[in-house]
Amino acid sequence: MNIKKHVKRGLWNHLMKSGIEMGLASIIYEVGVASKYVNHAMRTGDLGLAGTSNLYGEDQLALDVVADEIIKDRLDHTGRVSRIISEEQSEIVIFERQSRVGGYSVCYDPLDGSSLVDVNLSVGTIVAIYAGDDPLQSGRHQVGAMYVLYGPRTTLVYGASNGVHEFTLNNLGEYVLTQEYIQVKERGKIFSPGGIRRDYLPEHEEIVKKLENDGYKLRYSGGFVPDINQILLKGGGLFMYPATTKAEHGKLRLPFELNPMAYLIELAGGAASDGRRPILELDCYDLDQRSPVYIGSREEVEMATQYFK
Ligand code: AHG
Ligand code: MN
Ligand code: MN
């Protein structure tokens, strides 16, 4: 095996070559470190915290909580994060000892789709990164975003000013570059409808019917990360989670699900809308803020927004 090749294409080497600010690079890298422990806990059922002190005593805790603690601990370890919000925390967490000057704020979903682990379907970690002390900013202000997909392979996708890139975890525990400057095609062949059909509002019903009539294939795993990853890497398409008669704001959360994915998809040449406005333009004022979402290839997102005019 050519060790030099592995090192050359490693995540830290890529971050350094990309000229990303050191604090932002260390946050992306440390989420990668955390993901290896999350990956281990998920695949071995070992909910102890390998490599960090055991925070839980004897009880078995949901994987969400274990993943959240591991990621929180690694973000604190960077010394460059001043505030975080997490899907698993009820309020903003402040890291007191951080250098407040030049700090970052991080919003993350430690384990999205966690209920799918029991049926051995793919799940993921989603992260949005902002400069400064305020994690509740509109998505347009992100300085970086990333996700980790725990599937047949464990892959990490990050985007900052330098494009969107994919790394794959190898059996040496290294994230090695597998795709660089990923681009979403203008138009795709798959769609994810979201929600429950009987609860659809008229506009969404029409959009789904049009996609079916145009011969798009339905792809919906119930996991946001694998469903978006498929659109990013398999040539485009449209993922939707609509407003419904039961939930006028849809289901997915703006701060740590929609904003980071919208940032990555736009950086890769795609688009993301709530049906009327770009996701990244929405004011983000509440940890639990939800929004309808139409995200993926430009042409399909544009088509969907026509129904809300
Ligand atoms: P989480 O497990 O973090 O609550 O998120 C699950 C989300 C997202 O992963 C997925 O796209 C959506 O839930 C699926 O929702 P439905 O089960 O209602 O289809
Ligand atoms: Mn989630
Ligand atoms: Mn979650």
- Shape descriptor reads globular
> What is the H/E order?
HHHHEEEEEEEEEHEHEHEEH
Total count of strands? 13
Whole-number tally of structural domains: 2
Judged by helices, strands and strand pairing, the structural class is: alpha+beta
**Strand numbers in spatial order across the main sheet:** 2-1-3-4-5-6-7-8
Can you tell me the CATH superfamily of the largest domain? Fructose-1,6-Bisphosphatase, subunit A, domain 1
Please name the CATH architecture of the largest domain: 2-Layer Sandwich
CATH topology of the largest domain: Fructose-1,6-Bisphosphatase, Chain A, domain 1
Give the CATH level 1 class of the largest domain: Alpha Beta
Overall pLDDT, averaged? 92
The distinct ligands, each listed once, are: 2,5-anhydro-1,6-di-O-phosphono-D-glucitol, manganese (II) ion
* Helical content class: 25-40%
Structural account:
The chain is an alpha+beta fold and 309 residues long. It folds into two domains: 11-179, Fructose-1,6-Bisphosphatase, subunit A, domain 1 (Fructose-1,6-Bisphosphatase, Chain A, domain 1, 2-Layer Sandwich), CATH 3.30.540; 190-306, D-Maltodextrin-Binding Protein, domain 2 (3-Layer(aba) Sandwich), CATH 3.40.190. Helices cover 31% and strands 23% of the residues. The protein is built from eight helices and 13 strands. The chain has helices at residues 3-8, 11-17, 22-44, 63-78, 202-213, 224-233, 254-267, 298-306, and strands at 81-86, 93-94, 104-112, 123-131, 142-150, 154-160, 163-169, 175-179, 190-192, 217-218, 238-241, 271-273, 293-296. An eight-stranded mixed beta sheet has the order 2-1-3-4-5-6-7-8, sandwiched between helices. The chain has a five-stranded mixed beta sheet with strand order 10-9-11-13-12, with helices on both faces. Helix 5 (202-213) links the parallel strand 9 (190-192) and strand 10. The chain is globular. Residues 49-60 have low confidence and may be disordered. The structure holds 2,5-anhydro-1,6-di-O-phosphono-D-glucitol and manganese (II) ion (2 copies). One manganese (II) ion is lined by residues 64, 87, 109, 111-112, 114.
